[in-house]
Amino acid sequence: SGGDSAGRVELRAPVSGVIAAVAAAPGTFVAEGQELFHVVDLDRLWLEVLVPEADVGRIGTPSGASFTVDGYPTGFEVAPGQGAAPVAFGGVVDPQSRTVPLVFEVPNPGRALRAGMYARVRVFTGQARRALAIPASAVVDDGKQEVAYVLVSGEAFERRGLRLGVRD
Asked: How much of the chain is helix, strand and coil, in % rounded to 5?
């Protein structure tokens, strides 16, 4: 007939990703809200950096990071221009580890990285600055100051004093 009916409408979004853990066995009784599976989207991962309590004040507002993972010949960069974004910088110090979590969401092209991997991370702080970069082998310590010799013409070189910044 043409009557109205009341009922509960439930909208569901499709879940995509890789099953990382199964929390229930076949035939097991499960309660409402109990976790059954842990699904991970490997196209985008979270880089969680545990910042020591002593360094929290120096970081301020992080602008990005770079990290290396054992077994990969090149490093990875976490930069907004590359689709990465800061997610959260914890407000509470973990009482056991004395660290604060700093989380970045990073793209994972080709699914090269795996969830749960350990990384060595360098967090970018402060404003980005343009600067000249030279090979470390070009820096000469003359005892008083670090200098470099610059080719000015033909075989003529000029000594230039340096003010060094970050070394990488």
From this structure: 10, 35, 55
Question: How do residues 91-108 score in pLDDT, each as one tens digit?
Answer: 899 999 999 999 988 888
pLDDT at 94: 92
Residues contacting residue 133 through CB under 8 Å, at least 6 positions apart: none
Compute and round to an integer the Cα radius of gyration of the chain: 26
Its sign, for the CA torsion 62, 87, 66, 91, is positive
* Average per-residue pLDDT for the chain: 82
Q: String of b and e for 132-153 (b: at least 16 CB within 10 Å)?
A: eeeeeeeeeeeeeeeebeeeee
Residue 122 to residues 18, 44, 47, 96, 97: CA-CA distances in angstroms?
Answer: 28, 20, 12, 23, 19
- DSSP reduced 3-state for 136: helix
Our measurement of the distance from residue 17's CA atom to the centroid of its chain's CA atoms, rounded to an integer in Å, reads: 20
CA separation for the pair 48, 89 (Å, rounded): 10
> Please, are residues 46 and 98 in contact by the beta-carbon 8 Å criterion?
no
DSSP bridge partners of 161? 147
